[in-house]
């Protein structure tokens, strides 16, 4: 997941004060004993019992913990790209939330025993969004999880070049099941997966046999260029479910690419979706200014999507590989196949 906003980190001094107030970081875990283990991004994650102090960072992770019904065990959440889905709004409102990522000290001050991240930069060895490697947190007794379609090549890496083979809806289901097992809510996880599968199947049935429009997912930049979602981005899977193709699917090797307007003109997509981010108050209506910038760009006057009124506001949050996928697929299907609603 490429972040578009300026990294938002809680100042260290404030975090240090909070750390002191809470009695310091958690103690190291004593090796030994039994527990539950699940493998995530090449790392065995073992918990002695269901985690009781979960921290969730980024939109997919925050919505995941609410979907699994463990909101009462969440000690903190941070960095939403947009409002959570309505079904999670009450749970999120009752949860401590930071619009910015915490510093490592602030995270540890919350005394978590498990950190779920919807973005691999959180555990990188470098970068403004890093809270330290997963190994360094494990040494303090804090287990962690990265959503499988975003696995880095190794712990500590923040590479955008993810394995395309991992970008599947099956890996999303596996994350739900594995986290459900680690959190001791297997039955709830099974129901979440069953609901996701049923809703996705309903979308696929609705658009079956329809022509497949070519869709570009575009974010305007301040310098007049654009960033587009390439083939490995999970939005390619969402478009496929919704009966459409990513117009930039041939761009491989990473998830997002800078392009000039001439590249978008050359591809002449049938539909353009924006990728509006990142504020926890955003709803779909907040994506409309980005859509209007594209509609009124003189360079795009001849685009099929512009001429035919097929430029729509879309949220970056709806590109995520999490429990939000059915919602995103239903939304995209309603935009690209309005006759199949």
What does this entry look like structurally?
Strands 8, 9, 10, 11, 12 and 13 form a six-stranded mixed beta sheet that branches. Strands 5-4-3-6-7 form a five-stranded parallel beta sheet. It is globular. Mean pLDDT is 89; it is low at 1-32. The protein contains twelve helices and 13 strands. With 341 residues, the chain is of the alpha/beta class. It has helices spanning 12-21, 59-67, 89-93, 104-109, 134-138, 169-182, 186-207, 235-241, 261-267, 288-295, 304-307, 325-336; strands at residues 36-40, 43-47, 54-57, 74-78, 97-98, 114-117, 143-146, 214-220, 226-229, 245-246, 256-259, 271-274, 311-312. It starts with 11 loop residues before the first helix and ends in a 5-residue tail after the last helix. A hairpin with a 5-residue loop joins β8 and β9. The longest helix has 22 residues, at 186-207.
What's the gist of this structure?
With 341 residues, the chain is of the alpha/beta class. It has helices spanning 12-21, 59-67, 89-93, 104-109, 134-138, 169-182, 186-207, 235-241, 261-267, 288-295, 304-307, 325-336, and strands at 36-40, 43-47, 54-57, 74-78, 97-98, 114-117, 143-146, 214-220, 226-229, 245-246, 256-259, 271-274, 311-312.
């Amino acid at each position: 997941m490429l972040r578009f906003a300026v990294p938002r980190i809680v100042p260290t001094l404030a975090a240090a004060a909070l750390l002191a107030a809470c009695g310091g970081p958690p103690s190291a875990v004593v090796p030994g004993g039994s527990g539950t283990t699940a493998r995530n991004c090449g790392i065995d994650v073992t918990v002695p019992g269901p985690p009781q102090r979960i921290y969730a960072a980024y939109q997919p992770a925050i919505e995941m913990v609410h979907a699994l019904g463990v909101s009462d065990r969440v000690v903190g959440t941070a960095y939403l790209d947009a409002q959570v889905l309505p079904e999670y709004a009450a749970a999120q409102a009752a949860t401590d939330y930071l619009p910015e990522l915490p510093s490592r000290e602030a995270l540890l001050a919350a005394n978590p025993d498990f950190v779920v991240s919807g973005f691999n930069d959180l555990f990188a060895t470098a970068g403004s969004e890093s809270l330290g490697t997963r190994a360094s947190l494990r040494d303090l007794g804090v287990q962690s999880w990265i959503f499988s379609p975003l696995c880095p090549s190794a712990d500590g890496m923040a590479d955008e070049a993810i394995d395309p083979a991992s970008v599947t809806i099956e890996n999303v289901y596996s994350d739900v099941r594995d986290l459900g097992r680690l959190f001791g809510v297997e039955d709830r996880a099974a129901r979440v997966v069953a609901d996701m599968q049923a809703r996705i199947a309903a979308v696929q049935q609705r658009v079956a046999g329809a022509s497949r429009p070519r869709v570009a997912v575009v974010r305007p930049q301040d310098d007049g260029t654009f960033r587009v979602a390439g083939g490995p981005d999970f939005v390619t899977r969402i478009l496929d479910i919704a009966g459409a193709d990513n117009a930039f699917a041939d761009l491989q090797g990473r998830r997002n690419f800078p392009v000039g307007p001439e590249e978008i003109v050359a591809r002449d997509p049938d539909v353009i979706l924006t990728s509006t981010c990142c504020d926890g108050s955003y709803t779909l209506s907040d994506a409309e200014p980005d859509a209007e910038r594209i509609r009124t760009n003189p360079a795009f006057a001849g685009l099929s999507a512009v001429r035919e009124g097929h430029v729509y506001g879309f949220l970056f949050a709806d590109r995520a590989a999490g429990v939000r996928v059915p919602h995103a697929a239903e939304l995209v299907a309603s935009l690209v196949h309005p006759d199949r609603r």
